[in-house]
Amino acid sequence: MILTLVLITIGALLFLVIVYNMLQQYRQKQAAEKRGIMIRHSHIVNETEELLLNAGQLPYSRTLVLILYQRVQNSLQTMVETDPNNAQLASRLENVRQQITDAKDNFPPVQGNFKRPESDQQALHMLKLVKRLRHVVRQEHNKGKVGSQAFVAEDRRLELIQLKINLSNMLKRVRMAITNRETAAARQMLEKGKKILSNLADKDDQLLNIEETIQEWINDLDTKQQQVEQQKEEQEKEKSELDMLFEPKRKW
How many percent of the chain have pLDDT more than 70? Predict the structure, then answer.
């Protein structure tokens, strides 16, 4: 009888130990999942806020700003639900909601105009920024947070900004090539830019100005080439006339 009680007691203790370990593992798993959620969404918030801080580098649209603010709001909402006792997160969420309201009421359809990069480093930074923005817009569209029409319009607007950066950089390289008398390379780049723009149906004023500049530079290169060829022909003609003048007279 005593042995039976001892065995039952041991069995009960083992059962309690097993249950306790299972509860501990469950709590640890929950804590790990909570940390993972907080870390992931904290990264999203920081990344998106960084993109918002770069609004002075590119002409941001109201649509883009709202997409970014709503992305921050969604992540903060998830973090508040994960850690409801965090007053700081609740305050940040309320602040973002107010910024969304302000953006809807006061942010212009597009803020500022595209400014050509002043250096290769600035151009590279702008291109990376556009790439990140397009990636975020596509992600939010895939999540169902951005409608198809808004996504297509904003992605195309960013794509054209990317094209403007590349064309501006190309014009800078063309100018250097012309200065270094690398006419063939300059013409090749200009013709490539002209071809790209000729296939665009939705050029804005800035792209039309770039297209006009490209055509003017091509015309200048054509004029200079014609002048060189004309000068060469005149030199050859003069040389021919001198050769005839000083040619030994034949004896008959």
Answer: 90
Return the DSSP state at 134.
H
C-alpha gyration radius of the chain: 34
Alpha carbon 177 to its chain centroid, in Å, reads 28
Name the 3-class secondary structure at 61: strand
Return the DSSP state at 147: -
Q: Taking the CA of residue 230 as centre, how many other CA atoms within 13 Å lie in the half-sphere pointing to its CB?
A: 6
Q: How far apart are CA 90 and CA 236, in angstroms?
A: 84
Is the Cα dihedral 10, 12, 14, 17 positive or negative?
A: negative
The pTM (predicted TM-score) of the whole model is 0.81
> What pLDDT digit, counting tens, does each position of 30-58 carry?
778 888 999 999 999 999 999 999 988 99
Do residues 81 and 41 touch, judged by C-beta distance below 8 A?
Answer: no
Q: What is the domain partition of the chain in residue ranges?
A: 21-111, 144-223
What distance in Å separates the CA atoms of residue 118 and residue 58, rounded to the nearest whole number? Answer: 13
For the segment 64-74, the average pLDDT, to the nearest whole number, is 97
Instruction: Indicate the DSSP class of residue 201.
Output: S
- CA quadruple 11, 13, 17, 22: dihedral sign: positive
For residues 112, 113, 118, 122, the Cα torsion angle rounded to the nearest 10 degrees is 70
- Give the bridge partners for 110, in sequence order: 61
Task: Please name which of 120, 132, 117 lies closest in space to residue 164, comparing C-alpha atoms.
Answer: 117
CB 47 within 8 A of CB 68: no
